[in-house]
Amino acid sequence: MTTPQDKWTELELLPEWSEDFYDVYTGKKFGKWVMLKTLKPEYRDNPEYQAMLNREFEVRYNLAHAHIIMINDLEEVPGLGMCIITDDVYGDSLKKLIARGEVTQDIVNKIARCVPDAIEYIQTNHIVHHPIDASSIIFTEKIRNLKLIDVGFDQKNVLEVADTTEDIRNFGHVLIQALDACPEANPRLRTIAEKCIGPSPYRTVQQLQVALHGGSTSRLYVLIITVLALMVAALTAVIVINHP
């Protein structure tokens, strides 16, 4: 018969992932790696903080996005108390990659592409969350998939303008940090990042996404037009040769 002790093995505290009221662990549930978020020992018996943990689980449980860490369950774990159980996203935070000088152009591009997409999803679902920063953006250990952690603790009927613009400003700060740490220059992304944190930032994440994708889209249109022009010129030449 399986006991709770058999169910949970190799539990390890991750101090660098800790939050104000929570500790974060990695471990195996029935042999599968997961992550666990639980109240720090001094808060575990406090009904107010227990309700806070339950509320975060309720808000985040139904979120489903490729770049947001997924919540699987809320359950009692021996020695840790009630825990939010999430997918295992063990890897390196952007903050750690910056400190180690390991930010590449691929990392920068993933931030520019994936974070605004995740922000749009969060805002569409009216999720209230802690500010997105370099410590809440995780790149998985082997294939460097981007995942956001700590993305929701409450939900509103309607988000205020201040909530949405703060996300854009925080994204701008994160992108500038990544650009500063990357050996390759990217003037277009830097211009966008500076606008995000400037006096007249993008008003919506959709405007931000248009700016981010506009450069590549414009180049694609130019390429298509150039190819079509060459095809027309070649066809005209064939017609002229065959019908002098």
Overview of this structure, please?
It is built from seven helices and ten strands. The chain is of the alpha+beta class and 244 residues long. The strands form three sheets. A five-stranded antiparallel sheet has the order 1-2-3-5-4. A hairpin with an 8-residue loop joins strand 1 and strand 2. Helix 4 runs antiparallel to helix 5 and helix 5 runs antiparallel to helix 6.
Describe the secondary-structure layout.
Elements: H1 4-7, E1 8-13, E2 22-29, E3 32-39, H2 47-61, E4 71-77, E5 81-87, E6 91-93, H3 94-100, H4 105-124, E7 127-128, E8 137-140, E9 146-148, E10 154-155, H5 161-181, H6 187-197, H7 205-242
Antiparallel strand pairs: 1-2, 2-3, 3-5, 4-5, 6-8, 7-10, 8-9
Tell me briefly what this model is:
The protein is an alpha+beta fold. It contains 7 helices and 10 strands. The strands form 3 sheets. The chain has a 5-stranded antiparallel β-sheet with strand order 1-2-3-5-4. Strands 6-8-9 form a 3-stranded antiparallel β-sheet.
Assembly category: single chain
Question: What is the global morphology?
Answer: globular
Helix content: 40-55%
Outline the low-pLDDT stretches. 216-227
Enumerate how many helices there are, as a single number: 7
Largest sheet: 5 strands, antiparallel
Strand arrangement within the widest β-sheet reads 1-2-3-5-4
Terminal CA distance reads: 91 Å
Helix-strand pattern: HEEEHEEEHHEEEEHHH
Structural class by helix and strand composition: alpha+beta
Strand coverage percent: 15-25%
The rounded Rg comes to 23 Å
Strand tally, please? 10
The mean pLDDT is: 89
